[in-house]
Amino acid sequence: MSKKKFDMLKNMFDNNDIQSLIESIIYDTKDGYQLFGEYHIKKVGNKFIVTKNRTDLTEIFSNLKNAIVWTTMYKRDKLVDANRVKDLDILLEGAVVSYEIHKKLAKKAKDLDTKTLHIVKLQEDQMKQKAIIEELDRFVINAKNWQYRQFKEAAK
């Protein structure tokens, strides 16, 4: 939801309804995203930095979706799940880098044995990425379902 649309909603509801909506939604701002009225995600370079208002909490992610899922889990006090999302984000970033390295090495390889070794490593990297993404997707579904329930509850 954009800031402009959110401001329009503010004019339509009383303060209690607005506060309930703020605590339930994610909307974009001119410098990032505001989540649940207490978290902010800002893109810096190719990273996404999550901060919590009035605290020193800061987390860095390689992917906006992972940052939002982590924030949702953290907000729900599902710290084990939040930590797992953070770990998976790091593992996925490593797997992507590893894939790119093996891809370059496979292209540069002169002899068949070396080329075959790098192709096998490429396939391993792809399988690793797929497994990480599948696990992350389970957290994404969980976070989305919770967010929809929260929004429905706030809209009542």
General description of the model:
The chain has helices spanning 3-12, 15-22, 64-75, 79-108, 112-155, and strands at 26-29, 32-35, 39-44, 47-52, 58-61. It is of the alpha+beta class and 156 residues long. The chain has one domain (3-155). The protein has a five-stranded antiparallel β-sheet with strand order 1-2-3-4-5. Helix 3 (64-75) packs antiparallel against helix 4, helix 3 (64-75) crosses helix 5 and helix 4 (79-108) runs antiparallel to helix 5 (112-155). The two termini are 19 Å apart.
> How far is the first residue's CA from the last residue's CA?
19 Å
Structural class: alpha+beta
**Helicity, in percent?**
55-70%
Q: Assign an overall shape.
A: elongated
Report low-confidence residues grouped into runs of 5 or more: none
Strand content: 15-25%
Averaged pLDDT: 87
Radius of gyration: 20 Å
Biggest beta sheet summary: 5 strands, antiparallel
Number of domains: 1
Q: How are the strands of the largest sheet arranged?
A: 1-2-3-4-5
Number of strand segments: 5
**Tally of helical segments:** 5
Question: What is the chain-wise order of helices and strands?
Answer: HHEEEEEHHH
What characteristics describe this protein?
five-stranded antiparallel sheet, 156 residues, 15% strand, 67% helix, 5 helices, alpha+beta, 5 strands, elongated
Brief summary of the model shown:
This protein is an alpha+beta fold and 156 residues long. It is built from five helices and five strands.
Any chance you could write out the topology, listing elements then pairs?
Elements: H1 3-12, H2 15-22, E1 26-29, E2 32-35, E3 39-44, E4 47-52, E5 58-61, H3 64-75, H4 79-108, H5 112-155
Antiparallel strand pairs: 1-2, 2-3, 3-4, 4-5
